[in-house]
Amino acid sequence: MLRKLLIGTALASGLAFAAHAEDVKEVQMLHWWTSGGEAAALNVLKGDLAKEGYAWKDVPVAGGGGDAAMTALKAMVAAGNYPTASQMLGYTVLDYAAAGVMGDLTETAKKEGWDKSVPAALQKFSVYEGKWVAAPVNVHSVNWLWINKAVMDKIGGTEPKTFDDFVALLDKAKAAGVIPLALGGQNWQEATMFDSVVLSTGGPEFYKKAFNDLDDASLKSDTMKKSFDNLAKLVTYVDPNFSGRDWNLATAMVIKGDALVQVMGDWAKGEFHAANKTPGTDFLCYRFPGTDGSVIYNSDMFGMFNVPDDRKAAQVALATATLSKSFQSAFNVVKGSVPARTDVPDTDFDACGKKGIADLKAANEGGTLFGSLAQGYGAPPAVANAYKDVVSKFVHGQIKTSDEAVTELVKAIDDAK
Ligand code: BGC
After folding, report:
1. Are residues 154 and 258 located together in one domain of the fold?
2. H-helix or E-strand containing 129?
3. 85/20 same-domain check
4. Residue nearest to atom 5 of ligand 1 (CA)
């Protein structure tokens, strides 16, 4: 679909910009980093590029998981109006590369040694048919709990190690009159949480089979049904106003102590960081109960478009800055993620960041690093969207039982494949 839409414009834009004058000293970037923590992280990049004389042309489109941003990107590209780069997730990069609209950063990659420093799990999505088409910015991980420490102390809670422990902890918060679970009722947030629930319920092998291999028997299994049961249980701990709430507002509930915990990717830590909160003192980061040892990841990539020649120097500057070791440390400290290179010291990271770096390394070596289905790394966008839709309908009561949810999930994924 994407290919058909874009193929004509790839040619058209090439022709339209065939004549070029001097290099354009500007980077145009489409992204969905609009929260406080995200904006602070993006400022690190803007600052680095400004030092090299590049102006920043911002194209922000809010919405985690990037659905709205990707709609905007499609329209821009279809009009032959390529940004220098766009924030993208996993399979989306490959889609655009297959449509023939991405640039080729291989020369820069060779000069900078990306082959050696970027882990294979990321190269799978940033290199297409031997060419570097995207610069990975970070590695995020979704199977985390973010907990308000003062509330935890008040209710006498301890780290939950199993799903049942987690439920018991949520019950304690409820008894103390605190909102147990801060959730934003948007499909991508619900599905991001469900990624963790499935890993916890079925274990690493099951998660991989169901959500990376799309194995039919796993998708229709009793374990998947049990996963929906567990999700339904969690939803009983959410406040009545959760529908449509933005993720960063859910994080703010935890930061303020209005809620005990949020299940969210480590971009949530960027919000704690922006609010000057310290892990261990103000908040706690634990792996989602029952998922210790595994990491469900996504990575923000800057997809590099085949821009006209006079804009290529700016693109190379952006790509080089993005993968520099100093930027990888400075940016990810603020963003809540961990570096997309394996050779960046963890010195400047807080305790949660250090744990994130160590967990990623161990999972990568131990074969327990899995792509997030909700976040574009489990399967192509059509499948991910079908998944988000079913999970959300279940959370909001349009799908009533776990049995029905399993049937709908299998059907939706089948149709989308
Ligand atoms: C991105 C993060 C972002 C989050 C919320 C995720 O899809 O990978 O970088 O912070 O959405 O906007």
Report:
1. yes
2. none
3. yes
4. 64
pLDDT for 38-56, tens place per residue? 999 999 999 999 999 999 9
Q: How far apart are CA 197 and CA 177, in angstroms?
A: 25
Cβ burial of 129 (10 Å; 0-12, 13-18, 19+) is exposed
295-320 per-position pLDDT tens digit: 999 999 999 999 999 999 999 999 99
State the distance from the centre of ligand 1 to the C-alpha of 12, rounded, in angstroms: 32
For atom 9 of ligand 1, the residue with the nearest CA is 300
| Ligand 1 centroid to residue 267 C-alpha, Å | 6
> Can you tell me which atom of ligand 1 is nearest the CA of 337?
9
- Ligand 1 mean position to 98 CA, how many Å? 24
**Residue 7 alpha carbon to ligand 1 centre in Å:** 29
CATH classification of the domain holding 191: 3.40.190.10
Mark which of 333, 359, 385 sits at the end of a domain: 359
Could you give the percent of the chain with pLDDT greater than 70?
A: 95
Q: Last residue of a domain, which of 336, 359, 382?
A: 359
162 and 84, same structural domain? Answer: no
pLDDT in tens, 78-89: 999 999 999 999
Q: Per-residue confidence at 3, pLDDT binned at 50, 70, 90?
A: low
Residues 287 and 153 in one domain: yes
pLDDT > 50? residue 16: no
Confidence grade of residue 10 (pLDDT, cut at 50, 70, 90): very low
> What is the best residue among 35, 86, 89, 140 to mutate for testing ligand 1's pocket, by most ligand atoms within 8 Å of CB?
140
Q: DSSP secondary-structure letter at 282?
A: T
Domain boundaries, position 317: 2-140+297-359
Question: For ligand 1, what atom is nearest to the CA of residue 32?
Answer: 12
Asked if 304 contacts 99 with a C-beta cutoff of 8 angstroms, the reply is no
Q: How far is the CA of 411 from the centre of ligand 1 (A)?
A: 28
How far is residue 99's CA from residue 97's CA, in Å, rounded to a whole number? 5
Total-model pTM: 0.95
345 and 368 housed in the same domain: no
Q: Is beta strand 259-263 parallel, antiparallel or unpaired with respect to 179-181? A: parallel
Residues 134 and 209 grouped into a single domain: no
Residues touching ligand 1 (Cβ under 6 Å) are: 32, 38, 64-66, 140, 247, 267, 298, 300, 375
| pLDDT exceeds cutoff 60 at 219 | yes
Residue nearest to atom 8 of ligand 1 (CA): 300
DSSP reduced 3-state for 168: helix
Same domain, 382 and 410: yes
